[in-house]
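Convert to structure. Protein one:
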Amino acid sequence: MKQYKLTAWPELPANYQRIAYRRMLSDMSHRYVSVQQLCDSSGANKLEVRVFVQTLIDRGLVLERDELPEHGLLGPFGGWLRRALHGEGITR
C-alpha cells in the first residue's frame, strides 16, 4: 500500500470545496497517510479519496512512499524494548 504526504497546499476547485477534502489536505500536510486513513478521518469513500489523491499527484503536490510495516505484536512498546535491550540510542 502507498502513503501520501502533501508538499504544498493547493487552491481547490469548486467540486472539492467540502470539509472532507480539507480534512484530507490537513492530514496529508502533517504526515504520510494511507487511503484508508484518509477515508477514516474525512468520512469520504475510497473512490472519492483515490480520485482526489490522484488529482493532487497529477498536479505534483504529493509525495508517495510504500507503507511502512507495523511495529509487530507488541506495537510501539516492541520498538522501545528492542532499543532498550540492544542499547540503541544510548549515549555514553
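Protein two, convert as well:
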Amino acid sequence: MVANGKLKIYSSSAPSPDRLRIVDSAVSKVAGSLNFGFEHSNKKELLSIYVYYEGASGDEIPLYCDWGKHWEEDEVSRSIRSMMFVLSFHPQHSNLRGIRTSMCHSA
C-alpha cells in the first residue's frame, strides 16, 4: 500500500462501460496526483459504481457513488477530492493533512 492510502473502485461485472470508464479515469488521476494506491474490483451484487478510501487502519470509507449520475470526469474527480479534503480533518486520518493543498488545487 502507498503511504497515504488507497482508492478502491467497486462495481458489478457489467456496469455501463461509459460510466465505468469515466469513474475509473477520474479515480486513477486522483490516486496518481495524491500518491495513493488504486485498485478496481468487481462485485456482482452491486448495482452502481462505488469509490472508497482505504487508510492505514484498513478501514474503507465511502467517497463516491455513481448511482444515477451523468457526470463528466472532472466532476467525479472534484467530488472525490472534496470528500478526501473533509476526511483530512478527521484525527484518525492525520496523514492526509499534508496533502490538503493538492486535494484542492489539482485537476
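The mean pLDDT is 85. Strands lie at 6-11, 37-42, 50-54, 60-65.
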